[in-house]
Give the backbone structure.
Amino acid sequence: SQRMLKQTLFNLLKKTLAKPGVKNIVLVEGVRTPFLLSGTTYADLMPHDLARAALQGLLHKTSLPKDAVDYIIYGTVIQEVKTSNVAREASLGAGFSDKIPSHTVTMACISSNVAMTTGVGLITAGQCDTIVAGGVEFMSDVPIRHSRKMRKTMLALNRAKTLGQRLSLIGSIRMAHLTPELPAVAEFSTAETMGHSADRLAAAFGVTRLEQDEFALRSHTLAKQAQDAGLLSDVISFKVPGRDTVAKDNGIRPSSMEQLAKLKPAFIKPHGTVTAANSSFLTDGASAVLIMSEEKALAMGYKPKAYLRDFVFVSQDPKDQLLLGPAYGTPKVLARAGLTMDDIDVFEFHEAFAGQIMANLKALDSDWFAQTYMGRKVKVGAPAMEKFNLWGGSLSLGHPFGATGCRLVTTVAHRLLKEGGQYGLVAACAAGGQGHAMVIEAYPQ
Amino acid sequence: MFLQVNTLSVRMQNEIIEVFNEVLANDAVQSAVLISSKPGCFIAGADINMIQACNTSEEVTKLSQEGQKMFERIEKSPKPIVAAINGSCLGGGLEFAIACQYRVATKSKKTVLGTPEVMLGLLPGAGGTQRLPKMVGIPGAFDMMLTGRNIKADKAKKMGLVHQLVDPLGPGLKSPEERTIEYLEEVAIQCARGIVHKKILLTKKKGMMQKVQDYVMGIAFVRQQIYKNVNGKVMKMSKGLYPAPLKIIESVKAGLEQGPDSGYLAEAQNFGKLAMTSESNALIGLYHGQVACKKNRFGVPERPVKNLAILGAGLMGAGIAQVTVDKGIHTVLKDTTVEGLSRGQQQVYKGLNDKIKKKAITSFERDSTLSSLTGQLDYSGFEKADMVIEAVFEDINIKHRVIKEVEAVIPPHCIFATNTSALPIKDIAAASMRPEKVIGMHYFSPVDKMQLLEIITTDKTSKDTTASAVAVGLKQGKVIIVVGDGPGFYTTRCLAPMLAEAVRVLQEGVNPKKLDALTTGFGFPVGAATLADEVGIDVAAHVAEDLGKAFGSRFGGGNVDVLKTMVERGFKGRKSGKGCYVYTPGLKSKDVNPDIDDLLEKFKLTPNPSVSSDSDVQYRLVSRFVNEAVMCLQEGILNGPVEGDIGAVFGLGFPPCLGGPFRFVDTFGADKLVAKMRRYEEVYGNHFTPCQLLLDHAKDSNKRFHK
């Protein structure tokens, strides 16, 4: 009864976002492999190996029985063609029961957010109670294909019946057909690379090179502090087959403003402002979270970390508003949850580029932008920097496209626990001009 | 007055000199940026009115020399000047930009650089003929100045016309246009500073290719070959009817062979001479006319057309769909058979796909554009149509059936437009329950290439219907003339007597090749025999017969049976592979159809030597065309001579150097033309009887169609 009284008091002071008739859904645990620069220690693995490591880490940390999960969902962006449903391969390999269905989703950099919200949907619909969601990205190896003409010839060769047909097909191969086709780094609809778009976005919002470098330095500095202080408790250690055990992210490199200023622009030359140092780098990594209905979690004896509350997906013009997802998603999700910017204690925004983050912050803080492009009367305002990405972000920790979403959500939960806040907000942009935002509520301790 | 574009006028020139003097005098200023505050326009060129206001070539030469002097000062400025280009940078604007030390341009679709002077019968008269060859090489400079084509920013960078490109920006804290200009300015200022601080070097190290090219161009013999070559090409293309290209070559040559003093002098003098030519006058008249015909004089329609349905997916119907679907209008293409529809859909697809090859659009833009096109065989969705354009077979009974079918399914506000080249609209409208909503929209084939749209109104067509049709046409990018109803309207009616004459000329033993040479030699871009093949011999026969009935013996000349026999034998023109010529797919050159010799032999006429010289044959063809045009004005079919000139040039290929039939009468002299016609009249009768309005002009030399 003492506990009940405490709970009642708490509810009076700070309203909870629970809605009548809607199941409470909780984050029980979240883990991730160390995020490594691609081409480093993970170089010889396959994507499902990384996902497997994250899943095993989750099993280990939660002591979850291997048959207690109803469904497993993974997000990924660049697919390894051999394991196109990487969720299934990874869950089988991680020792989960082969009776658990698994599927893979993709939505660029918010793929694991989609994995999580798909899980939320299954629980809300009463289909499932226990979901493992995650994400994986493996940039050390990407599918490089033969050219279309070469593929066509090779497929025709398969069907060729006579030696003569085969020889004539082989004879038709030209040098140019041998040029390989790399996975496109450019937006399909606009043919513009993301870095190029980010540079234009920064220019559109008048974000200077100095501001970008400062933000990048902040991200690395905060990440280093968090790492040194042992705050990144979602990171599991992973014995890489044939290599050492990795236990730490390896992309965190606090530098100096002088060093950063030396870099040349990476995309728009010579006058651009986006450089390698103020952009997120190519990363290998995987993440996993355990999501349950509150009832089920409590019944299984878990102590949940946070509630997953309202979320939105947004999308805009993929040309000129490619990376403005957070600016559009934030006011929308706050409105859904009935909160204001001031109510939020913890912000975790995905840092694709320093310029992109600064542009989003400026957009959120502009009445003109709110009125002209979002149909709002006034701006919602920019997040307070003392609440913003305090343990580093994608710029410093790394950004395995498919895996970042779960890292953001887990970090919010951990920061709420550590800092004693009530509400957290996750926001992220994604290729295709899309975006996502989610409100997370601390679980009463 | 607020102008949407910047033009170089005397006033602007004075302002520039004033500011430039200030830049030079102020020690605190080390460099300057030249930028326009008008979105979408750097400098669109010199003010044409300024040139037209001059009465002598000396005056124009003086204008040119003043421009040259001003730009020379800019070029020799000790303080670097950076031109920051967003939007059109044309003619004098380009000449200004290339006099600057450095050029930065936005990659916007609106940013185009070019020297369109040649299209006005002029040349770049403010140093352009002298600076361009040095900047982009002799062949590149000739290509720019002789074609007058617009060059996009990225191509300009590759050519060495601009140094640096700036991307257009999207939404930010200001409107994209405003912020893009600001960004361009920021980058241009950085460049100006970079030049001052020697971080940007103005003399670029030459690459191997450049060195080789410079060496080759340094050989006098090579240059002579180029001049000769270019001259030959120009003569072949222009038949010597356009003086401007030749003067451009002459001016470039003078500069390169005799030094800058001679070059600049030649440029200024040639500019003065060209400004006084009738060709330039004609071309400038067409330019003004085109601008006028790109406006909707009927006001804003009550409701904009958002859903357009086209009946018939043939060459015409699909062509109309092609120019509509990418303008934000949802387009329905309806045919009666799957085969016909597929062919039409493929035509639209191909039209867009070809634009990808030219890098005008991306494959994604093609796909999203095509999502606005619905192909169908029934009338579903017609209840949402704001306008229906029918492009079915030219048969009054079919048109009547269609109009009844359509009116049963369309909403009350929907406009019914009929695409016909000769059937009177009032006859078609006779089957309509609401004739005020019926209008003629006569497109020209191929629709995506031909700029003209002839809109035909009947006595009953409402003003709003007309306004709506013009609005749609303008959206489709057309130059529009609105004419009164009558057999053949304006364009077909002018063409018919000329074609009748062409048939007679063939019957008189002139072979198709010779006939083509005579017409192109007069300035028609397409010869009369080729034109008949392009239009279709069957169509020509149809029109000749219909209009012959309507206008009587005046429309006689050649025997219609020549055309009819050709059709009977399957010689329907290009579409059937044989007409006056034989067409082999994939082959550009064509031979005369050997089978028409005996056919023409059968219909042979004996030419009268007194009216059969080459020149007489040309004037016989042209005078019938011109007389009919003037008669259309006399009868009120035409709204005015401007639309008459535009319709003839853009729809029928009347020689642009003559500016259209009306300007031709003004320039050539109505009295001289009447004198010629009287001579032909004596031989051929009423085919050549001048109309009253032409006679009036012949009597009074003060009477002119154009002021």
In short: The two ends of chain B are 25 Å apart (CA to CA). DSSP finds 30 helices and 18 strands in chain B.
